[in-house]
């Protein structure tokens, strides 16, 4: 028996090292420590640190559904609705906003994806298909420098939010809304703000109206002041590719480029002790039907081109009755519309009026209704409007 025990012990001790290691290999490894998402409160609500980095990311957006209608008048309606039925629309938007701090200021990138669908076919005219997703905005910034594809400084700026867009409504009436490839510098200090923006005029190389247009960008400059009482601002835009007529005089031959100017002055006065309530007054001038003007949709449909008038004045008042209900009214007058793409005046004036009602019954859910009246001189006026439901996140 002693001999058998000795042989058994010797046999166990003689197992090869490889066999031992093979047995160890099937053991489950220790789990790696998990880095949970950390909240980043440096840039406001909704930001979190991308795991393993010091970059803060916010994902936001909305989904809305609306149903609209329009009267059958001679003046094209602002909303672009067909007059003989319900006009349904769906929009989905997602924003990605990434930021981090450097010795040169905040480093930021912003991407906005958007898809629209009309209910019977996509807005892009592809037929009865799902709404295609497009890049609505994509830009980067470092400190005051910003470059990419975004709203033109003529209609919107990152700084000086008081001086952006037009009226209080979501449509905002006719304020020259447009998106362009941009390269700009923004500053904001002690209430003063300003922008110098170089903007793409869609011409490349020497094959446009003259040999300079492939290199010379359009230019927009903005200067203003914002305070607790409201703000005041001015902007000027130069459309380098506008030649005053923009028509072909013979095959391959165009008129000589002379450029075009637009200018705007605005004022906002906040109502004391009524947070969210304010009055806005904005004036516009354009010396032709180029990029920097009101870009009035009904006039563009009626005369072609961009829909500019020589002068325009916009007045709007928004009142926040309660934390969940607000309303606004607006009026805009257009003096002497231009022929499409030219600096020749039609001699016709126009006007628009709007009413906007906004109800927020619960957080991040909005019910909005807007109605607009549009009229061009010598043409019958039209009324258009919609009811919209929006879920923000």
From TrEMBL:
Signal sequence region: 1-22
GO biological process, one term: monoatomic ion transport
Membrane topology: Multi-pass membrane protein
Gene Ontology cellular component list: cell outer membrane; pore complex
Keyword Cell membrane among UniProt keywords: no
Keywords tagged on the record: Cell outer membrane, Ion transport, Membrane, Porin, Signal, Transmembrane, Transmembrane beta strand, Transport
UniProt key word Nucleotide-binding: no
Molecular function as annotated in GO: porin activity
Localisation: Cell outer membrane
Domains (record comment): Consists of 16-stranded beta-barrel sheets, with large surface-exposed loops, that form a transmembrane pore at the center of each barrel. The pore is partially ocluded by a peptide loop that folds into the pore lumen.
Entry's family note: Belongs to the alphaproteobacteria porin family.
Annotated function: Forms passive diffusion pores that allow small molecular weight hydrophilic materials across the outer membrane.
Protein name (Swiss-Prot/TrEMBL): Porin
Organism listed in the record: Mesorhizobium australicum
Taxonomic placement: Bacteria, Pseudomonadati, Pseudomonadota, Alphaproteobacteria, Hyphomicrobiales
């Amino acid at each position: 028996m002693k001999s058998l025990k000795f042989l058994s012990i010797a046999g166990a001790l003689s197992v090869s090292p490889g066999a031992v290691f093979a047995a160890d290999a099937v053991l489950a490894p220790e789990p790696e420590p998990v880095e949970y998402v950390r909240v980043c409160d440096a840039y406001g609500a909704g930001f979190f640190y991308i795991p393993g980095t010091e970059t803060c990311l916010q994902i936001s957006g909305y989904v809305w559904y609306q149903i609209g209608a329009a009267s059958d008048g001679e003046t094209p309606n602002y909303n672009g609705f067909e007059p003989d039925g319900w006009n349904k629309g769906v929009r989905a938007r997602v924003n990605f906003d990434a930021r981090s701090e450097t010795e040169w200021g905040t480093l930021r990138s912003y991407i906005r994806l958007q898809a629209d669908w009309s209910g019977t076919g996509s807005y892009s005219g592809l037929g009865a298909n799902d709404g295609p997703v497009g890049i609505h905005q994509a830009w980067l910034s470092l400190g005051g420098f910003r470059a990419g594809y975004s709203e033109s400084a003529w209609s919107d700026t990152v700084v000086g939010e008081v001086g952006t867009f037009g009226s209080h409504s979501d449509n905002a009436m006719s304020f020259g809304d447009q998106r362009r490839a941009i390269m700009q510098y923004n500053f904001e200090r002690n209430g003063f703000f300003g922008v110098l923006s170089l903007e793409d005029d869609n011409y490349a190389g020497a094959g446009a109206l003259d040999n300079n247009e492939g290199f010379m960008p359009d230019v927009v400059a903005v200067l203003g002041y914002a305070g607790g009482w409201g703000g005041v601002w001015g902007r000027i835009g130069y459309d380098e590719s506008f030649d005053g007529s923009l028509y072909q005089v013979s095959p391959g031959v165009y008129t000589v480029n002379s450029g075009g100017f637009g200018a705007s002055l605005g004022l906002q006065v906040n109502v004391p002790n009524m947070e969210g309530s304010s009055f806005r007054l904005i004036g516009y001038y354009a010396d032709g039907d180029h990029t920097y003007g009101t870009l009035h949709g009904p006039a563009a449909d009626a005369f072609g081109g961009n829909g500019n008038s020589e002068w325009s004045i916009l007045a709007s008042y928004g009142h926040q009755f309660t934390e969940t209900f607000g309303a606004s009214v607006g009026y805009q007058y257009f003096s002497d519309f231009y022929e499409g793409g030219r600096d020749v005046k039609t001699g016709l004036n126009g006007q628009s009026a709007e009413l906007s009602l906004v109800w927020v019954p619960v957080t991040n859910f909005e019910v909005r209704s807007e109605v607009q009246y549009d009229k061009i001189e010598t043409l019958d006026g039209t009324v258009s409007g919609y009811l919209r439901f929006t879920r923000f996140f």
